[in-house]
């Protein structure tokens, strides 16, 4: 009944916002198009695709639109993108996600709007992703990559759904990196978090309605005390509390996220010496940061691996070159061991991963809300509360930025070519102060997984071309594409 009422209210609000006269952007001499949220509701494609279509049709650096009752801009000009993501951060620090204080996970995530709280948490979490820390943590990721390849080997039925296998790896690897390796489990792939994160990230009517309510009627969203991640709150926070209790007297160095959390809890009250801002490292706060790793990394890293394999399946020369590079690294070691430093030797693998993120960006839209009136380098005035959207998929597939953008070409990222890429036209992890904190972790996870997988398996040659993606607000996802993994003959 509640869903029916909510759908009725949202439909009425959206219809009103569409039908009422609205020349907001036209009056400011900005090209104006129809409401993109309405297009998202009636189309069967992702919001990044809708934004790309709008940008392709109009070829304008700045396009005025709306998302329900919120005025919005689509920005493709690199100078404007730089201003929003980096140059004018104080006016564009907010990601624009409306969160209720009773939403214990969402309200404590790194995409929160409270800038002081965000700065404090980001400062304390940054050490998790240094090269030194990742090197110490690599034994966890490599163990997960080994178990992942064994999972592929042992589950012929699951090979019919290769994305499920890859998603299991990325989720389980994050779980092991957060909570440590469960010595009682036969395989790290037997993770209790896979199903939970799959449900949290899979597109759903409830999730779409919650997001629409936040965009169309913030008052209603607040009144109903809606939560983005409420279904997982009790389970995940209890897991964290139990792990904290079991590990509080543990002296063994594990180099996982729980170790960082325990160090923060020992410090007590966190304080910013400059502003005097204080923050209690509560179980709920730390649980939210752990949950954030899953939310930010499981689906995105899985998609990077997935689309790389989709492309390699139809490109035997690229695949053969990659096999050769991976084989040379393993054979030089004269064992089946893989070290953190070995990933740096796989330069072509790095190029393939970069091109996968170019053609299929992990996040197809980056958004920021203007918190104080501003003027973009292009001369467009932006009032407070206007939503600035960077359509990453459109930017990455713009021929002005990448010639032959529909072609999968890892050579764009060769050492001699990478300097030709314009700044702020390649944004797989965002840019500026709010760029993805786990970018290094993601690269290590993806490269370790692909290196292990392509050491043991190859791909049957077949032409695979994703035409449209799943209906999603930010992500680029096509989980049903099938490619055939088969054992290599050495």
UniProtKB/TrEMBL annotation:
The keyword Metal-binding applies. Keywords: Endoplasmic reticulum, Heme, Iron, Membrane, Metal-binding, Microsome, Monooxygenase, Oxidoreductase, Signal. Heme binds at residue 436. It is found in: Endoplasmic reticulum membrane; Microsome membrane. Residues 1-15 form the signal peptide. It comes from the Eukaryota. Its cofactor is heme. It is a peripheral membrane protein. Coiled coil: none annotated. Its EC number is 1.14.14.1. Its main location: endoplasmic reticulum. GO terms for cellular component: endoplasmic reticulum membrane. It catalyses: an organic molecule + reduced [NADPH--hemoprotein reductase] + O2 = an alcohol + oxidized [NADPH--hemoprotein reductase] + H2O + H(+). GO terms for molecular function: heme binding; iron ion binding; oxidoreductase activity, acting on paired donors, with incorporation or reduction of molecular oxygen, reduced flavin or flavoprotein as one donor, and incorporation of one atom of oxygen. Gene3D superfamilies: Cytochrome P450. The keyword Nucleotidyltransferase does not apply. InterPro entries: Cyt_P450 (IPR001128), Cyt_P450_CS (IPR017972), Cyt_P450_E_grp-I (IPR002401), Cyt_P450_sf (IPR036396), Insect_CytP450_Detox (IPR050476). PANTHER family: CYTOCHROME P450, CYTOCHROME P450 28A5-RELATED. Belongs to the cytochrome P450 family. May be involved in the metabolism of insect hormones and in the breakdown of synthetic insecticides. This is unspecific monooxygenase.
């Amino acid at each position: 009944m509640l869903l029916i009422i909510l759908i009725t209210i949202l439909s009425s609000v959206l219809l009103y916002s569409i039908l009422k006269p609205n020349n907001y952007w036209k009056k400011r001499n900005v090209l104006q198009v129809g409401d993109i949220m309405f297009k998202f509701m009636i189309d069967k494609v992702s919001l990044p695709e809708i934004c790309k279509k709008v940008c392709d049709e109009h070829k304008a650096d700045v396009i005025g639109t709306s998302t329900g009752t919120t005025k919005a801009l689509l920005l493709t000009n690199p100078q404007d993108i730089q201003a929003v993501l980096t140059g004018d951060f104080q006016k564009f620090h907010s990601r624009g996600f409306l969160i209720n204080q009773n939403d214990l996970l969402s309200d404590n995530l790194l995409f929160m709007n409270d800038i002081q709280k965000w700065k404090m948490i980001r400062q304390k979490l940054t050490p998790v992703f240094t090269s030194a820390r990742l090197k110490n943590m690599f034994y966890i990721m490599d163990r997960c990559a080994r178990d992942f390849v064994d999972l592929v080997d042992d589950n012929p039925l699951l090979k019919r759904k290769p994305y499920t296998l890859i998603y299991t790896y990325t989720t389980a690897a994050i779980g092991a990196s957060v909570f440590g390796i469960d010595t009682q489990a036969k395989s790290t792939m037997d993770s209790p978090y896979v199903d939970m994160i799959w449900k949290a990230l899979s597109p759903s009517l409830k999730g779409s309605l919650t997001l629409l309510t936040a965009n169309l009627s913030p008052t209603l969203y607040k009144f109903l005390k809606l939560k983005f991640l409420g279904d997982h709150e009790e389970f995940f926070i209890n897991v964290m509390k139990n792990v904290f209790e079991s590990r509080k007297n543990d002296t063994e160095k594990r180099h996982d996220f729980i170790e960082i959390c325990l160090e923060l809890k020992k410090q007590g009250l966190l304080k910013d010496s400059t502003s005097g801002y204080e923050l209690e490292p509560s179980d709920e706060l730390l649980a939210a940061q752990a949950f954030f790793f899953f939310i930010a990394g499981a689906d995105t890293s899985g998609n990077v691996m997935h689309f790389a394999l989709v492309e390699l399946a139809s490109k035997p020369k690229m695949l053969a070159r990659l096999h050769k590079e991976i084989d040379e690294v393993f054979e030089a070691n004269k064992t089946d061991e893989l070290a953190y430093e070995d990933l740096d030797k796989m330069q072509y693998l790095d190029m393939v991963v970069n091109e996968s993120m170019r053609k299929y960006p992990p996040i197809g839209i980056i958004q920021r809300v203007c918190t104080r009136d501003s003027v973009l380098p292009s001369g467009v005035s932006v009032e407070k509360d206007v939503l600035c959207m960077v359509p990453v998929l459109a930017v990455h597939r713009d021929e002005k930025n990448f010639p032959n953008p529909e072609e999968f070409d890892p050579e764009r990222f060769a050492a001699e070519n990478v300097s030709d890429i314009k700044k702020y036209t390649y944004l797989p992890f965002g840019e500026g102060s709010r760029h993805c904190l786990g970018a290094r972790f993601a690269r290590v996870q993806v490269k370790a997984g692909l290196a292990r997988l392509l050491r043991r398996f190859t791909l049957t040659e077949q032409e695979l071309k994703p035409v449209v993606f799943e209906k999603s607000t930010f992500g680029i996802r096509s989980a049903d594409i099938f490619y055939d993994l088969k054992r290599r003959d050495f």
